[in-house]
Amino acid sequence: MEFEIASIREAFPLLTRTVYKKPLVYFDNAATTQKPGVVIDRLKKYYEFENCNIHRGVHFLSQEATEGFENARIFVQKFINAPKKSEIIFTRGTTESINLVASSFGKSHLKPGDEVIVTYMEHHSNIVPWQMACEASGAKIKVCPILQNGDLDIDTFKNLLSEKTKLLAVTHVSNALGTINPVKEIIGMAHQTGAFVLIDGAQAVAHLSVDVQDLNCDFYCFSGHKVYGPMGIGVLYGKEALLDSMPPYQGGGEMISEVTFEKTTYNELPFKFEAGTPDVAGVLGLEAALKFVGNYGLENMAAHENRLLKYATERLNEIGNISIFGQSAYKASVISFLLDGIHPYDAGTIIDKFGVAVRTGHLCTQPLTGFYKVPGFIRASFAAYNTTDEIDIFIGAVKKAKEMLT
Question: What is the pTM of this model?
Fold first, then answer.
């Protein structure tokens, strides 16, 4: 399908809303993207005509729902080029995917003296689970610093790697800075020391083509709601041998092979890690979202977003007395900034009155705000349905906030 901004916008019902009697300008896409009609319709169709539990019945509806669910797993497998469908685990989102790995991998692979490396730009969801895993196992956290422009300090990272490094947990794209990390290079360096690598892809899948075989990562995690899909559904990719070596994350239905009071044996992958009734509608909605992205072309969408990023950066710099955080040469369509001397919450409140939705605060990256010695950020993040006209409205709102608060 040819990329046309008008047809993209028409696909998203919420974009027709007004707030404060002004057209909504939605620049909070790094927090969650809006949902196209095809995703909403897929959820509605499932609950109206297909609703049934899966993997547990021989009747028609159960078989139909099971087939749809497993076909969606195959679609996700192909979307990120995973070798096997059994390596695709459905979770509630990136946070649960990381917690699953931290808990299960931690129990089976971490021991006292081992080290886990994270970075200064990680989301809390890729810090706290590893702190918990290290507390439980006796392993230690090591932190890779960043450079002032938002790039990882690769030289220091090389020095942190050692035979003690058991796992590296790093974001593909920073939710606060927009930095696109050279994860393939980083994975290669980590593997040379025998370490495993988990990639937080929450911000990447909507902007970059992800090929887990090319990256050669051990784990890759992402959330449906960041890529035009429903909330509450996510994906964990893991290499089969590694997943096989890890104990289940939760116990209950579906993840078992045989249960007696004396002993329980566990199901094969991927079901070993999918205890209980899954979010069938969410999985089908995720499939619809990824098909939507495929129809328009991820590269086309990303090129449009990059044009928006360049334009918005230039317009912000024209205002003066603004600090932009994250100026890597390789970044996605995220701008975090501050009006000098103005608290981000105060500015964000005024910007909101112009109908412009931006995110303010620490963005779940408190170590990062500590690094820059700021109370938080104002973040504008762009998606394929945003326009330069909307950026002009946003710039007018920022100017007004500066005028009122200076």
Answer: 0.96
